[in-house]
Design a protein that fits this description.
By secondary structure, the protein is mainly alpha-helical. 23% of the residues lie in helices and 3% in strands.
DNA sequence: CCCTGATTCGC
DNA sequence: GCGAATCAGG
């Protein structure tokens, strides 16, 4: 059964892709395989990204023009993408890591988000860093106005997140006690992700959700007032923060 | 081994 | 159009 590539998913694919996340990472967040991501990206036309290899080194190689020249042109300001989908997992409060949101933004502390030069190396939104306690957002009804009160409430369960599929991962620390001698791929991946816990906690003053295609005149960031502690406004936070699910099986 | 993206080709 | 299988470099 073929994946339904809706505008929604395609938009997210584009976004994540443009953010420089790896295909596998994008796939994880979209609940598809990296192959699906790559394949779709190809068909969508968006693709030029520093690839570790170039296939077809055999048939012919006129040895005239530098093949990497084209690549370099396409992606000049991309020295080291260094994605690192920083999922800020609070080292403390292990009991609260139930439904972890996955901020789709690299850790780079991009200061001036609004003045994004666009183009390939679009500015990376400020590091999201999920707060230890997923604070419940204000009534989704009114989003434009910032919450008058930062309310740092106690463990308030997952916000009203139900725009798309989102099966929470029942993390039961005690239950999953038995640990394999050989960590699985998923486990290691999760660990890797969890390992990143930058003590930084900086929230932009405007929603940095990208709108439009970078490089095009119309491209801009949302700019709305973000949720406290988050880089996105309530509206886009729903799109940006998707429930953590590593496994492609277990389709929501 | 692991990772990455690229391409092919049956569906 | 889709994506698993496969390839290929790091």
């Amino acid at each position: 059964m073929a994946m339904e590539w809706t505008e929604e998913t395609i938009a997210r694919l584009r976004d994540l892709w443009q953010q420089g996340l790896s295909t596998a990472e994008i796939g994880r967040q979209l609940s598809v395989t990296k192959n699906a991501v790559v394949g779709k990206a190809h068909r969508l036309g968006l693709k030029p990204r520093p690839s570790p290899i170039r296939r077809g080194t055999k048939a012919d190689k006129p040895a005239d023009k530098a093949p990497d020249a084209a690549v370099a042109t396409a992606v000049p300001p991309t020295p080291t993408p260094a994605p690192a989908p920083a999922v800020a997992v609070p080292s403390a409060d292990p009991a609260t890591i139930t439904a972890k949101a996955v901020p789709v933004a690299p850790p780079a502390p991009a200061v001036k988000v609004e003045e994004a030069p666009a183009v390939a190396s679009a500015v990376i939104p400020a590091a999201p860093v999920a707060p230890p306690q997923p604070q419940s957002p204000p009534p989704a009804a009114s989003v434009d106005v910032a919450a008058p009160k930062p309310v740092e409430q106690a463990p308030k369960p997952a916000p009203a997140t139900a725009p798309a599929v989102a099966a929470e991962e029942p993390v039961t620390p005690a239950a999953k006690a038995p640990r394999k001698a050989t960590p699985t791929r998923a486990e290691r991946a999760a660990a890797a992700r969890a390992a990143v816990a930058p003590p930084r906690r900086r929230s932009s003053q405007s929603c940095c959700w990208p709108l439009g295609d970078p490089g095009t005149p119309g491209f801009h960031f949302c700019g709305a007032t973000p949720l406290p502690g988050k880089p996105y406004c309530a509206e886009h936070a729903q799109l940006a923060y998707v429930k953590l699910r590593d496994r492609r099986d277990n389709v929501a």
